């Protein structure tokens, strides 16, 4: 009995103790509730957790309006406050204290980015109506925003025009107005080291002494004048700082100008800007541009000149009691021109450019499912930043004299495609049921002519196969004689129709002014020799960089020929079906054999475990010293996650074989780029 009573009292004691714990008042509960209200941006609820002194200095409406007004200006969408001390430490610090300071981090997601700052929140202990102690917040302006004072003001000021940006599909910047360093000299600060400083600037950035002394001697120059010398990239800031520290009279300013983060790799896409002409400035002046305004000179900068132009706008800034700007609080970029968003993936662009480095030519990457252009390169290239920074005139003159013609945009030009036309002609022959599709060539040797009437003209191939050649063997060895015979068997009319089926000779709107591809100069041949040559992509057949990959979208995607697109908000041509899926699959199998067969001309692109269908092509133009060979390779990546067509054209192939261009595509696909 005694034991039972003992157990009963223990249980009763525990129940009472537990009940007391549940009812125990937490003085820090009000502070926790304040932080929750802040995260909910419920300013009225926050006011309820202020101490009596803070509430006596402003009404709830005034407090709410203060937060709403300030946070509204900077477009706060999220807010949070987090303690910079452990909860247990805070509880220990609060025990027995009437006031305490809590170090916190405040994070605001605003219209111009994330603002994070640290401050202290003072808590004051006060009793509520029931006599329970609570820690309430003592309000201070720096809890709302870092460094904010009662004498500060928010004002709206005018801001000059800003040119729109050029962006890739993932919103990575290809061209924008950004900070650059403007190096100059102040004559009155030279002391007795004028010549030393001139020599130092000349050596550091290649500015001639003649140019420097000429600038310093201009009539408007005074001892205190900043005499501008050269603009350089922010990447050079460390070198500029070292130059300024070591040489009296040299200084710099940070200014704004056009910058191109990816330089040469995207130069022929972005183009560049230059000083506006008198006629251009007459328009730009009305938009608020200064006399130093620039306008597009090539590429997308020129094509979208009117869209990219900005105009005078406004921004809100925080100023102190003297009107000095403390911080730019908001900028909705109402001064910025329209952004141009491309379908380009700059990461793929860099890889493709890297694979082509060291050669002249052009290359492209197309998504064969939707027709979007993911990469488009031209080599050799130039650095558009140097059209803005450094010795721009000297750099431009050197580009003009360069025999490699780096200013030439090769991806818009026409070139003979070689035997890369074979998939197009073969697919059309199969689709129409032509007997040309079942051709078997019995020719032996490496040269052939249809008849003696051809005189001394022979069509040649790389090697004697030693056996009869059918369509499959012709694809594997890229047999010019076979494809010439196929074209002759089709006849001129059917051959031209085969090419036209795949869009050859069509205009297609991809923003740039691409030269139109062709089958023959006048649209007709009237010559069997010309027809035979056309069968393996010579004669008068000419493609631009996108003619072939566009045509192959039909081979890659069940016969559906895609329209291509480079700019996201520009409409593209409708897809049209030109082949049966069975015909497309047959050609894909032939192209795969060109890659997978060890003797195939496309075998240099073979990657173990990767399904790639490809076709090589070599074309020659001219004779003797004027002879130029063009090496092509196009690859359809059949992996589901990468529905791409990669096409390269190497200009100046020399005596190298078809594997050279195929190796370029392999380097791109594997990422094993040349050093």
Automatic annotation (TrEMBL):
It comes from the Bacteria. Residues 160-327 form the Penicillin-binding protein dimerisation domain. InterPro entries: Beta-lactam/transpept, Beta-lactam/transpept-like, NTF2-like_dom_sf, PBP_dimer, PBP_dimer_sf, PCN-bd_Tpept. It is found in: Membrane. Residues 361-666 form the Penicillin-binding protein transpeptidase domain. Keywords: Membrane. GO terms for molecular function: penicillin binding; peptidoglycan L,D-transpeptidase activity. The keyword Membrane applies. One of its GO terms (biological process) is cell wall organization. One of its GO terms (cellular component) is plasma membrane. Belongs to the transpeptidase family. This is Penicillin-binding protein. It comes from Youngiibacter fragilis 232.1.
């Amino acid at each position: 009995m005694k034991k039972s009573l003992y157990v009963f009292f223990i249980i009763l004691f525990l129940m009472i103790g537990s009940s007391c714990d549940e009812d125990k008042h937490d003085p820090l509960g009000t502070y926790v509730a304040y932080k929750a209200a802040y995260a909910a941006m419920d300013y009225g609820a926050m006011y309820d957790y202020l101490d009596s002194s803070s509430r006596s200095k402003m009404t709830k409406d005034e407090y709410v309006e203060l937060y709403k007004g300030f946070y509204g200006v900077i477009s706060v969408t999220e807010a949070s406050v987090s303690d910079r001390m452990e909860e247990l430490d805070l509880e220990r610090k609060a025990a027995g204290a009437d006031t305490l300071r809590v170090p916190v981090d405040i994070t605001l997601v605003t219209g111009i980015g994330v603002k994070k700052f640290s401050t202290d929140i003072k808590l004051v202990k006060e009793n509520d109506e029931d006599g329970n102690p609570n820690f309430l917040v003592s309000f201070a302006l720096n809890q709302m925003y870092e460094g904010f004072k009662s004498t500060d003001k928010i004002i709206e000021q005018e801001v000059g025009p800003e040119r729109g940006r050029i962006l890739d599909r993932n919103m990575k910047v290809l061209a924008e107005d950004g900070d650059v360093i403007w190096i100059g000299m102040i004559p009155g600060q030279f002391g007795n080291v004028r010549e030393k400083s001139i020599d130092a600037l000349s050596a550091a950035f290649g500015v001639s002494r003649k140019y420097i002394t000429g600038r310093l001697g201009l009539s408007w120059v005074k001892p205190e004048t900043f005499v501008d010398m050269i603009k350089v990239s922010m990447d050079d800031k460390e070198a500029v700082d070292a130059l300024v520290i070591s040489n009296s009279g040299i200084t710099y300013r940070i200014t704004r100008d056009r910058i191109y983060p990816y330089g040469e790799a995207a130069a022929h896409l972005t183009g560049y800007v230059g000083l506006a002409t008198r006629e251009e400035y007459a328009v730009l002046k009305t938009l608020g541009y200064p006399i130093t305004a620039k306008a597009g000179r090539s590429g997308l900068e020129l094509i979208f000149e009117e869209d990219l132009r900005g105009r005078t706008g406004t921004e809100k800034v925080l100023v102190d009691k003297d009107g000095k700007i403390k911080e730019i609080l908001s900028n909705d970029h109402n001064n910025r021109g329209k952004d141009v968003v491309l379908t380009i993936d700059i990461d793929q662009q860099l890889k493709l450019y890297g694979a082509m480095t060291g050669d002249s030519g052009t290359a492209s990457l197309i998504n064969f499912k939707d027709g979007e252009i993911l990469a488009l390169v031209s080599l050799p290239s130039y650095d558009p930043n140097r059209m803005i920074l450094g010795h721009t005139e000297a750099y431009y003159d050197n580009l003009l004299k360069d025999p490699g013609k780096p200013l030439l945009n090769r991806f818009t030009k026409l070139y003979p495609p070689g035997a890369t036309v074979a998939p197009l002609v073969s697919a059309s022959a199969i689709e129409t049921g032509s007997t040309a599709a079942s051709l078997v060539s019995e020719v032996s040797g490496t040269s052939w002519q249809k008849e003696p009437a051809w005189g001394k003209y022979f069509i040649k191939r790389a090697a004697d196969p030693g056996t009869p050649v059918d369509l499959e063997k012709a694809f594997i060895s890229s047999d010019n004689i076979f494809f010439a015979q196929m074209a002759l068997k089709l006849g001129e009319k059917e051959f031209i129709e085969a090419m036209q089926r795949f869009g050859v000779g069509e205009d297609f709107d991809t923003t740039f002014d691409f030269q139109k591809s062709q089958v023959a100069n006048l649209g007709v041949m009237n010559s069997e020799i010309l027809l035979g040559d056309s069968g393996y992509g010579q004669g008068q057949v000419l493609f631009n960089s996108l003619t072939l990959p566009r045509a192959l979208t039909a081979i890659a995607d069940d016969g559906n020929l895609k329209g291509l697109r480079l700019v996201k908000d520009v409409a593209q041509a409708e897809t049209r079906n030109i082949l049966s899926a069975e015909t497309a699959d047959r050609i894909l199998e032939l192209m795969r054999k060109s890659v997978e067969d060890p003797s195939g001309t496309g075998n240099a692109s073979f990657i173990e475990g990767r399904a790639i269908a490809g076709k090589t092509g070599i074309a020659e133009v001219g004779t003797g010293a004027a002879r130029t060979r063009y090496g092509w390779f196009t690859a359809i990546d059949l992996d589901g996650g990468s529905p791409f067509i990669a096409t390269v054209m190497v200009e100046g192939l020399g005596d190298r074989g078809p594997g050279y261009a195929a190796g370029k595509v392999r380097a791109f696909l594997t990422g094993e780029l040349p050093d």
